Amino acid sequence: NAQIVGVPFQPTISAGEQPRWLNPVLLPDKQSIVIADEARSIYKLSTGKQLRTVLQQDLERKLKGRLSVLNNTVVAVSTNDSGDQLDFFDGIELKLIASLAVEGRFAWGPYSVQAGDQSLVLAYSEIEGLIAADDKGKRLWSINMDRVQLRGNPSMLESDLLIGTATGDLLRISPSAGKVVGKTTIGEPVY
């Protein structure tokens, strides 16, 4: 016997419009999901008995890439003709609480990591390199990486980050110092 267990999330769109969605992320309350389309809105959905929209906020700038959650802050890359920036949205009301502008375009991230007692969001700018920020949008450090192509999700090994590259390098980064502390060449792309 089939039974309805929820209703689909279906925002109103114009005829012929095909929204492009960024990945959904689960907030720390384990009861709310945030999802965004690239051009118009960011949504908070309840995951209770029915999937329903709790709130919707219109976007000031288009989003690209992926969403990430750091503590109770949703982080996204926004873009326009003058460049990219990291946008930080409060996870309760989805209000934009901070923006971190960079030179160039983001080519990887944002990804959230828990490094010991430190929570970071990481993203890679083609000009500024690997950037780490906190959940308030404050830049903690950046590492110039000379146009490397990062791949996959960052992983933790002891208290360090491991990040793979398209050229087959595995980078070990100290999140507390903001430095590359090791590099191993595998010879094949690391994802």
Quick overview of this protein structure:
It contains no helices and 16 strands.
**Distance, first to last CA:** 42 Å
> Order of SSEs, N→C?
EEEEEEEEEEEEEEEE
In total, the number of strands is 16
Q: Could you name the ranges where pLDDT drops below 50 across 5 or more consecutive residues?
A: none
The level of helicity is under 10%
Structural class: mainly beta
Please report which band the strand proportion falls in: under 5%, 5-15%, 15-25%, 25-35%, 35-45% or over 45%: over 45%
Shape: globular
Q: Major sheet: order of its strands? A: 1-2-3-4
What integer value in Å does the Rg equal? Answer: 18 Å
- SS element count, helices: 0
- The average pLDDT value, as a whole number, equals 90
Largest sheet: 4 strands, antiparallel
Structure write-up:
The protein contains no helices and 16 strands. By secondary structure, the protein is mainly beta. The protein has a 4-stranded antiparallel β-sheet, with no helix packed on it. A 4-stranded antiparallel β-sheet has the order 5-6-7-8, with no helix packed on it. Strands 9-10-11-12 form a 4-stranded antiparallel β-sheet, with no helix packed on it. A hairpin with a 2-residue loop joins β6 (73-80) and β7 (83-90). It is globular. It starts with 24 loop residues before the first strand and ends in a 6-residue tail after the last strand. 28% of the residues are buried. The model has no long low-confidence stretch (mean pLDDT 90).
